[in-house]
Give the backbone structure.
Amino acid sequence: MTISLPPETSSPPRLQPSGWLRYFSFSVDHKVIGLQYLVCGFVFYLIGGALAGAIRTELTSPVSDFMARDVYNQVLTLHGTVMIFLWIVPVVNGAFGNYLIPFYVGARDMAFPRLNAVAFWLIPPAGLMLITSYFLTGAAQSGWTAYPPLSITTPATGQIIWILSVLLLGGSSIFGGINFIATILKLRRPGLKLMQLPMYCWAMLGTSILVVLSTPVLAGTLVLLSFDIVAHTGFFNPTLGGNVVVYQHLFWFYSHPAVYIMVLPAFGLVSEILPVHARKPLFGYVTMVYSIMAIVVLGLIVWAHHMFTSGTPPWMRLFFTIATAFIAVPTGIKFFNWLATLWGGRISLNSAMLFSCGFIVNFVLGGITGVALAQVPFDIHVHDTYFVVAHFHYIVFGGSVFVIFASIYHWYPKFTGRMLNEDLGRLHCALTFIGFNLCFGPQHWLGLNGMPRRVAEYDPQFTLINQISSVGALLMAISTLPFLWNVIHSALSGPVAGDNPWKALTPEWLTSSPPPVENWIGEAPLVEEPYGYGVPPDELDLTATSGRDLWSSGK
Amino acid sequence: MTTTVPTKDQNHSHGEHAEHPDHRMFGLATFLVADAMTFAGFFAAYLTFKAVNPLPDGAIYELELPLPILNTVLLLVSSATFHRAGQAIRQDDHGRCRRWLLITAGLGLAFLVSQMVEYFTLPFGLTDNLYASTFFAATGFHGLHVTLGALMILIVWWQARQPQGRVTAADHFPLEAAELYWHFVDGIWVILFVILYLL
């Protein structure tokens, strides 16, 4: 643990608006923007959750009785779009990225604070536009993938509004990505080397590279799709000589990396949380870094595994199967690194740790079904069934959302200066874990037995399993209540946290809670060893130049 | 990557969260990578359409070369003239800089006019067939970039006025940014020219 203590200087002048009002302002403070992302994202999570509740209510019976079929289509489209583009992507990237990255690189703010504020303020109008389209003209009905010709033949107004909001959200995402890349590469405190950065920085660097390279392709594709709808061009319209498979290629060129945009930051966050609560250094820092970068490269060349039933030629199937299977290698390395981090640690089973462990369990299950889905013969059997739905939710809910909750429990004391109630947190975790597995576990069986996804009605033989799944969804909805009570009640009257309640070593804990506007009074601390847990300071080789040497000196 | 050059304001407290001027070019370059990926998507779509979607009988998709070659020359020359404007501002010669900027903007406008002439003389329209639609989407998106670039040049031209303009020999970020963007747009055109007109 080497922290150069800053000389005491007077507090810088506060030019930001203060008080709760700044959270509704065009603030350029990265901490305010981070919390804006988080709270805004959570509001959309509640909306998306209500939509999921409507879906599971409809599916408790095999006939379409709770809502009309076209309403069901709108609800599932909105659910997917809201959860991906307005909850997970903005929160794992925008919220925690904006709050933590400047701390981790030892900066006062992001590289482009105003661009940062613009990126956030694109989100609420885009989300509002998307939601209100349901009440005005009917929302889009073609799912979050908006595959033509379905998206061309369903009512145009809702689809166009959907395209516009996704374009705005994509723009927000690109601006955020540019900001993260510039901040991590250009704004590091003097003396702080890349290989000394906390793992979340690497995850965000990799994610931002994916955002910058792949999101523009989706934007261009959606512009072409809107031409098909509005100007009656025929890019993706087979009746006008177009090619729907080209849309699928371009769409998945973004949307497969989008899965990594949702889950790589979660990998980074969990790599921050585990060492703190297991009191051990993060195992295999260097392999972790290379794994992230390998996932970034491989993530860009596996998209067509979503298209094995779209008439892809055999060579393409072969290539994309092999490339996809390769991703299991770096992902597995990360998985075993987390297990090794926990191994022999002094683990405190608090809410942050429990949610992280829940993530590890869920994610490995989702990963295994992912490798299975990459195999062409199996994929053809379960394509467009509930097996894919189950796999996807094990990754993005069991993976990313569990980590989001773990991160909220971990960083809430820093955000607010107050502790959360641990008993309510554990209740929240237990309910979420049981509800989640009860909801999505049985869907593997449904899919293997041929229940198609995205349809409001199903064969009556699936009724019981669907009802079990809906009970799980209800549990997940209930699990939100102790969480909401906890965060609101603790913000007002929770026990005071102090600067560093977890005795953590990463730089955001080496300042007050909540931190001052300029992050530190005085100079930013130089943290060369963010994971130096469990080693007495006098046994640490302070002359070591790389993190690897430091960790090899102490177990 | 060991670019740990700190800006001055990182080392001591300051009350204002300003954009860090030294990193704006880096941010712009990153944005241009993203922008290039949009074009890459259009080009990939065009090449795939050409490879797997033959035109139906009677569909017309023919391009003439003279105007696009003229356009290529216009843009390449305009890159050179913009470069001269940048050299002039570094030598604190505002008059020469602004003349070169005006010439560059003029070349950009000439490109746009020539592109419009081409559009109106082509034997096909936007919705006639798949290749035609993709052609208009790619060239139109590029034309949008040229339009924005020409506007940027005129703004820089205004900012380079003396004595109160903000573009000076010491600090000419707007000019540098517009110049990088303009070279990028020219580079994209060369790729577009090869893919759409020559292949």
